[in-house]
Amino acid sequence: MKVLAAASLNDDAWPQKVVLIRPNEDANVRQKVTIDLKQMYMDGKTDQNYVLEEGDLVYVPPSPLAEFRITFERLMAPILPRRRFRPVSNDGLLEV
Fold first, then answer.
1. Is the pTM of this model over 0.70?
2. In terms of Cα–Cα distance, which of 65, 75, 77, 68 is closest to 11?
């Protein structure tokens, strides 16, 4: 939970479906668990609060609505005009 809090999940995240993948000594075996981060936060249930180990992977998938938006943007990309950016300083961009 501490790692995900530090990662600052954005609006596209699906906190109910966070996946922890832990490698095994056998390279062909991986342990996988789905964590409901929202339930942990709202209800204070810490039974799914795993201590991360070296080699662990944490995946936060996009929410169904975000997935729809991402797919829609990919489909519309060929027909929508592209935005062009040009640098205006070392720390900013200006849309052209």
1. no
2. 65
